[in-house]
Design a protein that fits this description.
This protein is mainly alpha-helical. It has one domain. It contains 2 helices and no strands.
């Protein structure tokens, strides 16, 4: 999902020109160190929040 997102965003900002692959590699190198820890930190918090919000709706 992250690959699709930074690929589309890179294309929107730079266009499909000769430097697209260079910009795509730069976006990949910049995005993954931010995205991966964010997922590991945010995902458990959101899972607990969703469980708490949906816990009482099943009764």
């Amino acid at each position: 999902m992250a690959c699709i997102m930074f690929g589309v965003i890179t294309e929107l900002f730079t266009g499909l020109n000769g430097d697209f692959i260079h910009h795509l590699r730069h976006a990949f190198i910049s995005a993954w160190p931010v995205a991966l820890p964010a997922v590991f930190i945010v995902a458990p918090i959101l899972q607990k929040l969703v469980l708490a919000l949906t816990k009482y709706s099943n009764n």
